[in-house]
Predict the 3D structure of the following.
Amino acid sequence: QVQLVESGGGLVQPGGSLRLSCAASGGYFRIDNMGWYRQAPGKQRELVAAATSGGNTIYADSVKGRFTISRDNAKNTLYLQMNSLKPEDTAVYYCNAEGRRFSRPFETWGQGTQVTVSS
């Protein structure tokens, strides 16, 4: 099965930056869409940003101009550069991937990485 492992979360002061990474492994797969979601305490999980294999990207309005999503398709790795972080960005960030493995569709999630923005 395809597995996603996130890294890069942590504690940062308001206005600071973090870079999240999500590496996919499992062999014999093709990933079409990858995205970052986040879930704050007491709130529903929400889409932060997503990128297709062709390079198209979308962002939540709340992060436009501050976050940048990128993919290294050769390494099956997704990144999220987060700048000008705000306390309201505090959440667990999850990586998501959709694609095909052995010609069968799959969707999978990472375990999540905590991002805390606080002074």
About this structure: The mean pLDDT is 95. The two ends are 40 Å apart (CA to CA). DSSP finds no helices and eleven strands in the chain. The longest strand covers residues 29-39.
